[in-house]
Amino acid sequence: MDYIDLLQWPAMLVTVIAAWLVASQHKQRRNLGFWCFMGSNVLWIIWGIPAHAWALIVLQVCLAAMNIRGARKTE
Q1: For the whole prediction, is pTM greater than 0.85?
Q2: What pLDDT digit, counting tens, does each position of 15-69 carry?
Q3: Which domain holds residue 16?
């Protein structure tokens, strides 16, 4: 097994944790959730490049852009 394939599991876990945190009523947890989402976007892109998962890579870039937009609008 290629070690890069193992990266999809932490990427999935960080994504789930981020979704949990973003739904919090506490501003600090929501902020942490934002950064977890950004980290998960990076992990998915790193995993997607050698896997040639181009649609996933584009999706992660779009999701990161939407998260940044949402964070700016809530300030």
Answers
A1: yes
A2: 999 999 999 999 999 999 999 999 999 999 999 999 999 999 999 999 999 999 9
A3: 3-74
Find out whether 10 and 43 touch, Cβ atoms under 8 Å.
yes
> In whole angstroms, what is the distance from residue 45 CA to residue 22 CA?
21
Residue 47 CB neighbour total at 10 angstroms: 22
Tokens of 25: 């009523």
Place of tokens 């890069």: 4
| Count of the separate structural domains present in the chain | 1
What letter represents residue 12's amino acid? M
In terms of residues, how long is the chain?
A: 75
Q: What is the C-alpha to C-alpha distance for residues 44 and 9, in angstroms, rounded to an integer?
A: 10
